[in-house]
Amino acid sequence: MLRGAHALLTVAALAVALAAADTYVVVLALTDMMAGVGVGIESLQKGTPIISGFLLGYVAVLPLIGRVSDLMDRRRILTWCLVVFVLGSAVTAVAVELPVMVGGRLLQGLGGGGLVPATLALVADLWPPGRRGMPLGIVGAVQELGSVLGPLLGALVLAVAGWREIFWLNVLLGLLCLGALHLMTRRPTPAPPPTPAPPSTPTGRAQWWRRATAYLVGILALTLTALTLWAPELLTSSIALGGPFVPFDPASGSRALTPIGAVAAGAWLLLGVLTLGRWLPLLLRADLLGATLLAVALGSLVLTFSTADPESEVLGPWGAWLLPVGGLAALAFLLRQRLAADPLIPHGVVRGRVWPALLVSVLVGAAIVAVVVDVPLLSRLTQGTDETDAALVLVRFLVAVPVGAVLGGWLLRRVGPALVAAPGLAVTAVSVLAMARWERSSLDELVATTVPLVGAGLGVGLAIAPVNDAALADARDDGHGTVSSLVVVARMVGMVVGLALLTSVGLRRFHDEVGRLPDPTDTEALLDAAVVQVQTVLTGAGYAAALAAVLALALGLRPVGHGRAVRHGQDDGARTHA
């Protein structure tokens, strides 16, 4: 373990928690945010991209960031992901039009999504096999805890300020993490003896001027973007200085589609050209084409299902054409994987226990999302609560998940991943199947509902560290970032697709129940049919958790690291000679 590993992990974990909180921080502020960009509550569907934009950026960037983190210092990846997250938070905070707000949320997702695989891979770098359980459990715990605290943080800020302050708080906390990360990554080792400086060459001077120009253009781009989005009244109301702020289409009132906005976009484009030699070779080496194809496939999947109303539909409004596009992109990605000499997912990285870890992640994602969506739905149906009060029913489940994650990491010191994950997921399966038997009055019974909610949360938490630990143990040492990103992607895909499939079965059961009613207008009978729909979805989630428990047995019965010292020594020697 490297010196300062705990401090570095603490900062990275806090950044992960901040990004996780931002996934749900808009739950209570969504209507205010829509009003802030001129979208009324009657057009609630137009506000969907505010949430789906974040999810799209979060999922689409994961495979590429995971691969890039295997090719360069992971601490630099964490730094740049935090920078993008902070910029996205600032853009969201000042947005007065929906496209700008969605763009800010997309940037937040891009930055936040990259933090998770980089942090998990960082654990693999800092701790040897057999000692990663607790650090992985802590990372999983803070990620889940961030999801719990997100809505509460939003509520606290809204109680004393407006929705924009939520994102300015993100900027502040992100900058603090950046500062701490900078301090933690400074190397205190003594400098090597000075060597005579080589005489300046035209090439060296050219590189210096190019770098200085890039910094100046970057500062200019940030300044122009800030002026574009802020549009200070002192300038916009001035006859002499207000011309650049007049929209190209005055009827739109857009701040972005203005002369100054166009110049800001040009400055960013110029910055990209000036720095092309620093980032393009790295992205090409990471297989930018393959990452783009996979991003299109994952993005189509996310937008198809995340924009649907799980109470009444399976596919979102764009699903009819997004799914074929995503399918073609997925086929092209698989072809690219097979033919490319250096593909996005290097050959031999996904091997051994990585496969069951991915399958377990998919099934766990499906089980989690069913509980998160359908338990509050049952509360709204049977107790007449609003969305906020219904979400509070889940607190017992959501708090239990990080507790289980820490406990699972601690247990890995003594037993193998399978002996932690499989029993935990079995408890989840039993608990969710118990929820599937809830009736209309069940949520009124505190103890009877708390036990299965806590049991399901603890079981899910127990599986987090073992899944990551087993996957990282069998992955190649130069593929930890890639494998970490795939585990997270698998869970997200399980959540999106699992909810769609389970909802489809539940809706069919609902329509069957309604079709048998002698009086289809009977309100009470319709309510009973809706409860049957929820029961059906939770039953499917329970079976998914049970199957995950069976597959988790393949994660290994012995503790990770047992009997691996010799092989790792050989791998290290091979890398040294290479």
Proportion of residues in helical segments? over 70%
Report the C-alpha radius of gyration, rounded.
25 Å
Q: Give the biggest sheet.
A: none
Which series of helices and strands comes N to C? HHHHHHHHHHHHHHHHHHHHHH
- Total helical elements: 22
Describe the structure.
The protein has 578 residues and is an all-alpha fold. Helix 13 runs antiparallel to helix 14 and helix 20 (480-515) runs antiparallel to helix 21 (523-551). 74% of the residues lie in helices and 0% in strands. Residues 188-202 and 564-578 have low confidence and may be disordered. The chain has helices spanning 5-24, 30-36, 48-60, 62-69, 74-94, 98-126, 133-160, 163-185, 202-230, 233-236, 259-274, 276-285, 288-306, 319-339, 354-383, 387-392, 395-411, 417-435, 446-474, 480-515, 523-551, 565-577.
Summarize the structure.
Helices cover 74% and strands 0% of the residues.
How is this fold's topology laid out?
Elements (H helix, E strand, L loop, with lengths): L4 H20 L5 H7 L11 H13 L1 H8 L4 H21 L3 H29 L6 H28 L2 H23 L16 H29 L2 H4 L22 H16 L1 H10 L2 H19 L12 H21 L14 H30 L3 H6 L2 H17 L5 H19 L10 H29 L5 H36 L7 H29 L13 H13 L1
Helix pairs in contact: 1-6, 1-7, 1-8, 3-6, 3-13, 4-6, 4-20, 5-6, 5-8, 6-20, 7-17, 7-19, 9-11, 13-14, 13-20, 15-19, 15-20, 15-21, 17-19, 18-19, 18-21, 19-20, 20-21
